[in-house]
């Protein structure tokens, strides 16, 4: 059983699902329209009132989750948390409320998870497809073929800001709609050539916004649930005639969602016009379903992050033989150090694979270039926090340790750094790892015991070890090297 919690810009949502056959069946859902994006002040900070609403919701979600035998759960945060300037201040309170780590995902990763949910809902269809998700803070457009994603982009266009900007005080005018649609088309125009109908067969709308608009069209007499430009324009004209959002009487749309639907309607019209869409099919799948599928794939050891790291190596033309050698040694050394959290093993391995990606930029200070690429590059499957962690490990592979700052207070991080630095130096010295020659342990200090004849055979490693002892001493950690017969 898997659970996904989506901290969206308009609503927080929870899905609990069970894998059955070829499907994940949702057994419990929860939603709280806390309007997080509307809680951003003019300076881009989330207000205390919005934070309090979010914390209350997350406490309730924690209670719901506790009632199910869940094997794995992920909490993902999207656009508003990505852009909030005070995110570092309120995220600890959010995590304490739900009792779980919160993963702030990029817009592109959000798009990939959305597509993963849609592709699995379509039961393995190999069609070429376009998927659109209009959220409260951003819009994702994904192009794919079957389960493979060929292109994904995220745009800072969301229903909350669009409603606030173009329909202030709930006023609906033709001029407001025209400006809202033109803004969407202007922001998309540079990207649209790659998403034209020649590249896909069917188009799907995965978000609550698209499904709400589809319901409004069908239940209010504008036609069947499939969405077309003609129906959208009829709904637009109806809204303009009503003049005020509070005067709209749309069957099937909850009153608190009407304003978001109006902003979403303008965005969807712009998408139809710019992408030349004839028909958009609403689908009951998206981010939360994608998160649960991702958890299922990880549980079956089909972690897409592994492929993403390998692809990143190819993009930056890193030497794969050297990368594999260092990664295998670093992982073996790290395991010998007996970390407290076994999950670190993955990050040590992936960071070690990526340790030389910065060489494409320059052989001088390549660890710094690599660190930047890993932190800010687009690596599918990874959260912002995960990439920052791996970035620091890549940075740690050489040079002084003072640059790592207070993260050296985490014993598992220290063990990871020791493993990577030792593996890199063994690779440079062309030495094979053999634990019969040396043993490594760490408790209050780092202790390395080496056979005396092995040291004599590898003088360059001995040179490095002396420098390593000094580097660790500079940050207040003892690194003791002993020889034995």
Automatic annotation (TrEMBL):
<dbReference type="Pfam" id="PF02541">
    <property type="entry name" value="Ppx-GppA"/>
</dbReference>
<dbReference type="InterPro" id="IPR050273">
    <property type="entry name" value="GppA/Ppx_hydrolase"/>
</dbReference>
<dbReference type="InterPro" id="IPR048950">
    <property type="entry name" value="Ppx_GppA_C"/>
</dbReference>
<keyword id="KW-0378">Hydrolase</keyword>
<feature type="domain" description="Ppx/GppA phosphatase C-terminal">
    <location>
        <begin position="305"/>
        <end position="466"/>
    </location>
</feature>
<dbReference type="Pfam" id="PF21447">
    <property type="entry name" value="Ppx-GppA_III"/>
</dbReference>
<dbReference type="InterPro" id="IPR043129">
    <property type="entry name" value="ATPase_NBD"/>
</dbReference>
<dbReference type="GO" id="GO:0016462">
    <property type="term" value="F:pyrophosphatase activity"/>
</dbReference>
<dbReference type="InterPro" id="IPR030673">
    <property type="entry name" value="PyroPPase_GppA_Ppx"/>
</dbReference>
<feature type="domain" description="Ppx/GppA phosphatase N-terminal">
    <location>
        <begin position="22"/>
        <end position="297"/>
    </location>
</feature>
<protein>
    <submittedName>
        <fullName>Ppx/GppA family phosphatase</fullName>
    </submittedName>
</protein>
<dbReference type="InterPro" id="IPR003695">
    <property type="entry name" value="Ppx_GppA_N"/>
</dbReference>
